[in-house]
Specification:
With about 675 residues, the chain is an alpha+beta fold. Strands 15, 16, 17, 18, 21 and 22 form a 6-stranded antiparallel beta sheet that branches. A 4-stranded antiparallel beta sheet has the order 4-3-13-14. It has a 3-stranded antiparallel beta sheet with strand order 6-5-10, with helices on both faces. A hairpin with a 5-residue loop joins strand 13 and strand 14. The chain is extended, with a radius of gyration of 38 Å. The protein starts with 11 loop residues before the first strand and ends in an 11-residue tail after the last helix. The C terminus is likely disordered.
Length: about 675
């Protein structure tokens, strides 16, 4: 299941004693080639490459337009006295929230003393206003989410407060940005111009009526002025293929300016290219580190790393944070004498006892309680991207998951207890740690009970690492820890001779089939041949698209499915042609026989293809390895057969039957193909 999750076609997995042998088609053993290339790049202190140019002057021009810009990351709505009402993650969020505030009446069960409907004429029109038998106890500014920001005794007070609301930036992220577009295209300032009017005939007496000709300032461009196209930024014109994002996230402008000043223009004389075994260039990079990462992601190494992960997920309550100097050993480490190796190697043996795990996020050791939920309680996991918001100042990748019934119940109970500790201010007892393979990924605080069975794992994920973790969680944890014994890559050139002989055999077989159809059905044989060519083109196109988009690898079993489907397609044409013969023998002309012949034949074709399709589906769902590849190509090809028969064969034969020349063509026409050389009375 884990291999299938990566879109690998037809993996062959064999158990031999205590060894698992996995044969995976389609993967490459790529290599990194160093190629000479002179370019000038904007580089960072840690090896980042932000952009490159072919000339030093071009690169320097791109560097000169970089500048530091601050982006608010905490903007609060305040009243006239400076009191904070609510804060947001950006200026746009705060402005939108401020514009969407409404005055809502908060009602009490009994009428307030002295309350009168005439005291506030608009009170009854407010959303949530007082109904019959109730009176407003207060009036509140409410945002679009329904949260009450501030409340006042009267509507007049809250409306006056709303008019004086303002936003205040309390936190700012400073980033290095490309300012070249603004520098190259400065905003033109308004210039005064005279407005000259022309005499307008008066409709009453035909005399000219003159308007004032007093010059007035106008920002409108003068006649004849043309708007020029915006000039591109020198930085944007640089090569940014596989470039790193510009530095961002600094807490002060000084730090961001220092990072900008530390970006030099360096001369690079080579590039590192990842090349597959088929000599296909998968990507070229200025530094070796991203090339190594590309090689890992595009070669067999990445898949083997994921296959070999145990992926044992645990969620445990936090009992105590231990400093790095604490002598307590990490559970199942070499220095842990309290547990034997059998317990450490047996999944679930330590679920009901406290453990000590390392927490790389805090640089400490953490004592955890018994397991609340584990990977078996997860129904579905997926990688998600969380944009910046009020609760999440920095955008990040995370893994979202949904638990089953028992997991939802257990986690609701544990999160409720943790929330009670949070309300009481007892930290770190208000945290539930999420660990994968005995390493803590995150330890979020439980600020409210989680009873819906949905959670999220955060922990400095990249898009790739989040996708990998979601993949192994969906496939399930392995019951044992795997050790890689050996890896061998077999070149496809070993099957080159077999491929050549197979192609020759296919050409010979198809040629004989074409000659037979041509001899037996004449012009209809050409129709059948063209239809099978269209079918083959579509089938190979789908296989190619699946290979490039889904990682599908066409193997011998898949080829066998295509070959059998070709025979099914040929049968579809023969069924139609024989039914057409029967209609002509019953006294109908070839033109009149086409419609009923196709109608009856198509029912037979659909029934036959449906039986083949059901068999293919059953094979795909119940079989493994290469049999699934055979079933997949058989199913797709059968569906294509119905498509080509209906949209090509049917209209083509109809058009032939409408042409007297093609019908009566001597020795080759439609009449010859269906043996319709009729005599008097319509008999042959």
């Amino acid at each position: 299941n884990r291999v299938d999750a990566f879109g690998v076609g037809e993996p062959d997995i064999v158990l031999s004693g205590t060894n698992i042998q996995v044969q995976v088609p389609g993967l490459t053993k790529s290599a990194i080639e160093t190629r000479p290339k002179i370019q000038y790049c904007l580089t960072g202190a840690a090896g980042q490459v932000y952009a490159c140019g072919a000339a030093e002057k071009t690169a320097n021009s791109g560097l000169d337009v970089l500048d530091v810009k601050g982006t608010p990351n905490r903007v609060c709505i305040e009243d006239n006295s400076g009191a904070k009402l609510k804060c947001y993650g950006s200026q746009s969020e705060a402005d939108t929230a401020k514009a969407g505030l409404t005055v809502v009446a908060r009602t009490s069960p009994t009428p307030s003393p002295g309350a009168s409907a005439s005291a506030s004429p608009t009170a009854t029109a407010s959303p949530g206003g007082a109904g019959p038998g109730t009176a407003p106890s207060a009036y509140c500014l409410t945002d679009a989410a329904g949260d009450q920001i501030v409340c006042k005794p009267t509507q007049t007070e809250v409306q006056a407060l709303q008019k004086n609301l303002k936003t205040n930036v309390e936190g700012t992220d400073y980033c290095v940005v490309d300012n070249g577009l603004a520098l190259a295209n400065p905003t033109p300032s308004p210039s005064p111009s005279a407005v000259v009017t022309t005499p307008t005939p008066s409709p009453a007496n035909g005399k000219a009526k003159h308007a004032s000709s007093t010059p007035s300032p106008s920002a409108t461009p003068s006649a004849g002025a043309t708007a020029s196209a915006p000039k591109p930024s020198p930085f944007a014109s640089l090569d940014r293929t596989h470039a790193d994002p510009l530095p961002c996230g600094f807490s002060s402008k000084t730090e961001a300016k220092a990072a900008l000043d530390a970006i030099p223009v360096t001369k690079e004389t080579s590039e590192y290219c990842v090349v597959s075994t088929q000599q296909q260039t998968l990507g070229c990079y200025v530094s070796r580190a991203p090339a190594l990462n590309k090689q890992r992601l595009t070669s067999q190494g990445h898949l083997l790393d994921i296959i070999g992960k145990t992926a044992r997920l645990e969620e445990r309550p936090v009992l105590e944070l231990l400093p790095p100097t604490d002598p307590t050993p990490i559970t199942c480490s070499k220095g842990d004498p309290s547990l034997n190796k059998e317990d450490c190697d047996t999944p679930g043996a330590l679920d009901k006892v406290p453990v000590v795990y390392a927490d790389p996020t805090q640089g400490a050791k953490v004592k955890l309680g018994p397991v609340v939920v584990d990977g078996s309680n997860i129904k579905k996991a997926s990688a998600v991207f969380n944009p910046a918001s009020q609760s999440n100042p920095s955008p990040e990748w995370a893994v979202s998951f949904t638990m089953d019934g028992p997991g939802t119940t257990a986690f609701a109970k544990a999160s409720t207890l943790a929330n009670q500790y949070h309300v009481a201010g007892q930290s770190p007892l208000d945290q539930i740690a999420i660990a994968v393979d005995r390493s803590i990924i995150s330890s979020p605080q439980v600020v409210s009970p989680i009873t819906n069975g949905q959670g999220e794992i955060t922990g400095n994920f990249t898009q790739q690492s989040a996708s990998d973790l979601a993949t192994v969680l969906n496939a399930g944890a392995l019951p044992v820890e795997l050790t890689r014994k050996a890896t061998q890559t077999v070149s496809p050139t070993l099957g080159k001779e077999s491929l050549r002989e197979g192609i020759i055999a296919g050409i010979v077989g198809l040629s004989l089939l074409f000659l037979y159809l041509l001899f037996y059905y004449r012009l209809l044989g050409v129709v059948a041949w063209l239809g099978m060519l269209i079918w083959a083109t579509l089938a190979l196109a789908l296989v190619s698209l699946a290979g490039s988009g889904l990682g599908y690898a066409l193997t011998l079993a898949g080829v066998a499915g295509l070959v059998i489907s070709l025979g099914v397609t040929a049968d579809s044409y023969i069924v139609f042609f024989e039914r057409l013969k029967d209609e002509v023998r019953n006294g109908k002309s070839p033109r009149a026989a086409v419609q009923p012949a196709f109608k009856r034949a198509f029912k037979t074709i659909v029934a036959a293809d449906l039986v083949t399709g059901i068999a293919a589906v059953v094979l795909y769902l119940t079989a493994i390895s290469s049999v699934r590849g055979f079933a997949l190509t058989l199913l797709v090809s059968t569906i294509l057969d119905l498509f080509v028969v209906y949209f090509f064969k049917r209209p083509t034969v109809f058009l032939i039957a409408r042409s007297p020349k093609l019908v009566a063509l001597r020795g080759f026409g439609l009449e010859s193909g269906v043996a319709a050389q009729a005599t008097d009375g319509g008999k042959e």
